[in-house]
Amino acid sequence: xxxxxxxxxxxxxxxxxxxxxxxxxxxxxxxxxxxxxxxxxxxxxxxxxxxxxxxxxxxxxxxxxxxxxxxxxxxxxxxxxxxxxxxxxxxxxxxxxxxxxxxxxxxxxxxxxxxxxxxxxxxxxxxxxxxxxxxxxxxxxxxxxxxxxxxxxxxxxxxxxxxxxxxxxxxxxxxxxxxxxxx
Length: 183
Hints:
The protein is α/β, with parallel strands linked by helices. It is 30% helix and 30% strand. The longest helix is centred in the N-terminal third of the chain and has 13 residues, at 25-37.
């Protein structure tokens, strides 16, 4: 399978919720399972890779939460959601258009928590998981946490960090695998 061209992804975001996440009980569960499995601790900086329209992003903990997506249109939808928040809450969030392969040039500093949901599939990543792993090593703080949530049947790659927890649950017609790692 080849990598999906960025312009195809961009066209997909002609509407605010092209994946049908808002109001979908499967996606509400995905978000709840993710948040419940995160270790209880103080989060300073959080990175949501493949944030889309911010469906998960706005519920993430952290003093500073950065959403990254390859689609500029998705980022605009996320910023529109952000504009509906109260001013104090909205300040916690920032959004940037960019590829996960450009992490080192798109984001700066390190993150206590990196969340990656629904983007580590062949059409987005190709066979470049090791490249992403190297880039992730560059932005994840010491003792930082990675939360990865993907359709089990579609994503065989695992992160080479210490696995803290894993959870499997039904997601639409598939099974989701939610993994939480610490560096």
